[in-house]
Amino acid sequence: MWDPETGAESPVPAAAMAGGEFGSMNSPPFDVAVDQDLLLTVEGSKVHVLDRADLRPRAELRAEGRLISVKAVPGSTLAVAAGDDRRLWIWDLDRPGTRWYWQRHSGPVLALAASADGNFVASGSSDGTINIWKMGTNPIEYRTLFGHESGVTALEFLPDGQLVSGSFDGTVRVWNPAAVESLAMFERPATAVTAARFGPAGDLAAVAWEDGRVQVRDARIGDLLGEFVFDEPVVSLVVSGCGQWLAMGFDTGRLQVRDLATGAVRLDSTAHVQAVTDLATLAACGRLISVSADGTLRKWDVAAGVETEDFDFGQPLHAVAVDDARRTIAVGRDDGGVCLLSADDFTDQTLVADATGGGPVTDLAIDPVARLLAVACGNGEVKLWKLADSTFFKSILAHASSVRSLAFNPDGRLATGGEDDTIHVWCVITGLTPVSIRDHDNAIRSLAFAPDGERLVSGSAAGDVRIWDAQPFLERDRKRAVALLDRQAAAARVAALLDQEDGDLERVALLLRSDRQLGPREREECRRRLFAHAMGRARLDVGGTAAQAAGGAPAVEAAASAAAAAGSH
Length: 569
Prior knowledge:
The protein is of the alpha+beta class. Among the domains are: 14-175, 7 Propeller (Methylamine Dehydrogenase, Chain H), CATH 2.130.10; 318-438, 7 Propeller (Methylamine Dehydrogenase, Chain H); 480-567, no CATH class. The longest helix has 30 residues, at 471-500.
């Protein structure tokens, strides 16, 4: 113990030196935390709880695996610790025999921090992620922060609630853990959301619940604009591209279209004999597509109130997606196949057999720009297929259990909702996700982006609906993708110059310095790459023979000099 004013070490109380738990540690403690009356320190898989005044042992808390960090949660009796086993261990100090744990990280937890109000604990892992946990009698994971490219080694909450993180990647970042907040939230407890969609202008959202209630809400503030109440469950819905009508599919097979201005019925059909599992619209305002568990695909002329095309697949259908620009419809089948066919007359059919790799298709989404088809699978994967030639592109392990809903943003980002209560938004090219949302307390049943991509609506099996401002995490993803491209371009440029100049560091540095086409960001990235290469060469020199080792220091100096020269202009 130290006196911070004088810098002198404070005498350890005699009681603490008399032996006991504190005096018999078998390995160096990795971390220490201070509460009002207590001192916490970790040793191996144990947390020692000591009296702050005299360092007498109060309790010993046990976990599994080596612990690295420990924190006392302000304003509570909770203590948290974490380490090599990737779990967040939590104890109530008033009941030391009571413990529980949560695991979300895929690597050891290297750092912990607790907010001043005790509402949040942050955990940083070697996997590069930071998890924010809501504390209380039943702690839950609040959200995951992505951005570091290597292990997170240090965390600290600022008094204003912002979080500072440091990483092996050499960066320090400041986060607002509450940056992704819902703009509106409404619910019908004890009845699951079955579908949620935006209107074409993004200013209204339509939501259906299992109890037969359908509401139209202001998508900006959540105010109720209109409501329909039915005596049978509504399982699918869609708003027309012109914003004039709302189509609803029922569990009984009934299909109904209502005018959004007057509420009048425009179409009412029982052609389907089982649940209408999904709906989609074509660009023309009066065209509607429906699929059903009875195996049929149908097209409707809403203005005329009649069916114009149908096709029977002979097996239950679960999802439909439309590429308007190319007049293509994708239909998800019970056997895991996806059928691509013409939106005009249901001809020119192409089958993507076993698109899920096993099990039925649970949802579909199309990115019309990249011409990619996303297929939701029951094993937590999302499989991506190229629409141009119906070939496999890649697979993303999106969730710990079944993926229930998909939605593409106009910029090509893919939102996924799963039975694990989480929402992820992915860059499908890199397979990276800028943010994960875990504010829902039950499985995600429906997702949709507004046409402009600025908002995301989500509904869960618990009945709650949230509308999110999507811009913060999409902008963070854009910056991350740009930085990745910068690093890749710099690595390729430096490698090419080194090859061209036979590894002459000074010559490469001179060429980089004289290249006026490089901007400040590109020049700095090239400087880093050159320095990393030079330091790698110096380490090889130092690790060689004694004669080589003697030249190690000059090699390091040369590396630093060359990199500095490359960065100057």
